[in-house]
């Protein structure tokens, strides 16, 4: 009773504080965030005490549903007699319904008894425990016989909690008008089992289809990789063969070019296109220094010629000057022709290598 009056006093003082007029005579406004109810904004449970003992869970849910939709009713009962202990924990779907229930139902009369209604900050309903998950520090202090007894007690308590939850759910459903009979529950269980079997079969079929598609894709990818590897191998083989043929042609052409250059250098050369006009004496002396021309043969060493020999050498150089100039132009034309031949051989080798690679790729595709 004292707790009921305390809640009423807190509510009355809060109303006077928040709705009091200011100095200008304006009435205040109600702000829930500044109310003492905001302290319990994270809990949707309320405690209801002083209930008549003849009320069941459905009766309590019917009375408390006027403040909001109820999602859970936990009414403890005596283990020996099974009668209610006169209090319950109510959980609303909307937390704001707890404010209405506390403000309006606290101190109300129900079947001649004064009901106490207050917020419940930390409500945790007893949950089922695992008998094999006894902490080590507890198990070490127990003998094997005591440990087995503790496990049996946990199993029995789990069965009681399960039965209590089923009973509470049934009473709650009866109060809401959604209760089902045993036949309907059995039919629902059979339907759920059939649906579960169909779902498992569909999942198995879906998994097999996915595995089949993945295997086909994997096989296709492996075949493509093998085809690409064969194509690259054929291309490398033809490229090596083409490069070998190109090297063979290049070596042969180089030997031919070397013989041609040797034959061209073996012919007499003039010092310049205008060698005939530079004077016979200078040309004769140069020929004498080279150790050839003017009828002189022998090792390449410096020789001293007389006046008559120098005159003869100058006359010979003057007579051959025109032919030597024409010979220089012919050698330039020969070198240009050789360069053109080199370019033609190089282009031909490249074309053969490309053609070999293309044929190898086509053969590999046809084989795959």
Low-confidence stretches: 270-282, 291-302, 322-327
- Proportion of residues in β-strands: 5-15%
CATH topology of the domain at 2-125: Alpha-Beta Plaits
H-E string: HEHEEHEEEHHHHH
User: Distance between termini?
Assistant: 94 Å
The helix fraction, in percent, is: 55-70%
**The CATH fourth-level homologous superfamily of the domain at 2-125:** RRM (RNA recognition motif) domain
Overall morphology: elongated
In round numbers, the mean pLDDT is 76
The largest sheet is:
4 strands, antiparallel
Strand order of the largest sheet: 2-3-1-6
Q: Which class of the domain at 2-125 in CATH terms?
A: Alpha Beta
State the secondary-structure class: alpha+beta
CATH architecture of the domain at 2-125: 2-Layer Sandwich
Q: So how many helices?
A: 8
- Rg estimate, integer Å: 58 Å
Short recap of the structure:
Residues 305-321, 359-368 have a biased composition (Low complexity). Among the domains are: 2-125, Alpha-Beta Plaits; 226-266 and 279-291 and 304-367.
